[in-house]
Structure formats: C-alpha cells, structure tokens
Design brief:
Helix content is 39%, strand content 9%. With 288 residues, it is an alpha/beta fold. The chain has two domains: 11-104 and 189-287, Alpha-Beta Barrel (TIM Barrel); 122-184, no CATH class. Strands 3-4-5-6 form a four-stranded parallel β-sheet, covered by helices on one side. Strands 2-1-7 form a three-stranded mixed β-sheet, with no helix packed on it. Helix 1 packs across helix 2 (69-85) and helix 4 packs across helix 6. The relative contact order is 0.16. Residues 16-152 form the Luciferase-like domain. This is Luciferase-like domain-containing protein. One of its GO terms (molecular function) is monooxygenase activity.
Length: 288
C-alpha cells in the first residue's frame, strides 16, 4: 500500500506459498514486493529439444545462439509452431539471438579493437567456464587436436549444440582451444548495422541479446555509434511503444498489457484462481 498512515503492506494480502512439484519444492514468503507487471518477463535460454519444448510452453522471450539467419529462421518457425500447439499466440513469444558487435567510426578502428580484444582472450578461463556448463573436463584433451565426441559422451546435447554452433559459421577444425576461445570471446568485423538489418529481415527475430567484450566500452560504443544508425534505418525506435508503462507492455507493444497475457499457462496460478487452496494459516498450497 505504501500508505504513511496504514503502512507499507497489508498483512492480509501476504501469503506464504507452499509449492510441491516434481522437480522443486518451496515453503516461503516472497522476498520482494510485487512489480507493476506482477510476474516478471519469463526468459528461456537453451537450444536442446527439452529447452525448446519448455520455451514453447512457458517463455515470453527466448535467447538463441544465432548462427546463421537460415538456421535461426527454422528454429523460430519450429518454436512458434510449438507454442501455437500449446494454445499460445506464437507472436507473443519473442526471440533474441546473441550478438557481439565490435564497433568503430571506421573499419580500421573496429579492426584495431577486435585485435586488442583477441589478444586479451584467456582460453583457460573459457575452457573452465565451458566445462562447467557441459560437465566435461576439456583439460584432459590435447589442446590443439581435433575434438571428436562419441554419442555417449558425458555432457549430452549441450556440447553437441556448442560444436554445431561453431561449425555453422566457421569452416575450421574444432579443438578444445577453439571451443574455449568461442566461450571467452566472440566478435565480427562486418558492418554491424547491415548485419542487424539482415537478421531482422530474414530470421523472424524480435531483437538482439547484445553481449559485451569490454565494459563499459562495448555499451558506450553501442549507444553512441550503433543506435543512431539503427534509428535512422527505422530498425530501432526513437521512443518506447508505450512510454511510461511496463517492460511487458513494451516488449509486446500492447498498451495496458502489464500482466502475463491470456493463454499463458501461468494464468491458472493467479490468486483469484488459487484462493480456494488456502490452508489454516492462509498459505497458498500448490501441488503439481
């Protein structure tokens, strides 16, 4: 309520959640006050078949690795079709490939930054990070020998997805060093605005998950050098679609759309739907 007389909160509206699920159990109060949009935007990342199915059911936005426009377009079509099969509006699942732009006022400046960043790459750090993701100790393999996996290799779909991502856009031998460098650093020296425009026009994406190489330099370059070009081309807005409203309203471009839209599975878990599940201590009990 944030009322100077009544206080910040109404205790009658604060309920403990007792959730008993197959993979997760909790018995606690929420640690923060509700957002204006109530449920935060639900993002999903991961390109395995299980990850894609999970995204089709639950995600409002999806991060993808972004290899080529053709392969990403096929993934987006599959994802949207799966969302429709679950009874969702496929246009409300937003897709964001990752991109790491290296920017300069001239190609020479961008090339110099690329070479500076590349010289700072720590392949050992990249190897450790990637190994933690995939549950594979890359250190036990010869650093510069071709990396070949058997079908029963520990790490499952994740490491195959990583290798396929590298193969998709670079015709090079895959070694532990190459995989580690891709994890530690990723960049390209093409005209970035052209690349953005190509992806928007040919991959049915909704935006980009922009990764940085150097903080704050990468972000400063993005704002000062790239955004004005994208705005001039009509690829980026000059003002938010629904200024002053929530992130969800702007990502969906629907004025007044603060809560998760109808058709999303989480809508069955609103308080009005669950208030019949209150126990003797007014805790909400959910079993799945």
């Amino acid at each position: 309520m944030f009322d100077p007389v009544k206080g910040a909160y109404d205790p009658e509206k604060i309920h403990r959640i007792k959730f008993n699920g197959k993979h997760h159990k909790t018995n606690a109060f929420g640690a923060t006050h509700p957002l204006p949009q109530r449920t935060p935007i639900l993002f999903q990342a991961g390109a395995s078949s299980a990850g894609n199915d999970f995204a089709a059911k639950h995600a409002e936005a999806v991060f993808v690795s972004g290899q080529q426009t053709s392969s990403t377009l096929a993934l987006v079509k599959e994802l949207r079709a799966a969302a429709a099969a679950y009874g969702r509006d496929p246009s409300r699942v937003k897709v964001f490939p990752q991109i790491t732009p290296i920017l300069g006022r001239a190609m020479e400046e961008a090339q110099a930054k690329y070479e500076k960043y590349l010289a700072c790459v720590d392949y050992r750090g990249g190897m450790a990070k990637l190994g933690s993701y995939l549950n594979v100790d890359l250190g036990k393999y010869p650093l510069d020998e071709p990396f070949v996996l058997k079908k029963d290799t520990s790490g499952g779909q994740g490491i195959y997805a990583m290798m396929n991502s590298v193969k998709a856009h670079e015709a090079e031998v895959i070694t532990p060093r190459v995989l580690a460098q891709k994890m530690a650093f990723n960049g390209n020296t093409e005209m970035v605005a052209d690349v953005f425009e190509d992806w928007v026009n040919n991959a049915d994406i909704d935006g980009f998950n922009v990764a940085y190489v150097s903080n704050p330099e990468s972000y400063e370059d993005l704002v000062e050098l790239l955004v004005p070009v994208l705005q001039k081309r009509g690829l980026m807005w000059g003002e938010y679609t629904v200024p002053g409203e929530t992130y969800r309203g702007n990502i969906l471009r629907i004025p007044g759309q603060t809560a998760i839209p109808e058709g999303h599975r989480s809508r069955q878990f609103t308080f009005n739907d669950l208030k019949g599940n209150l126990d003797e201590n007014r805790a909400i009990v959910i079993s799945c």
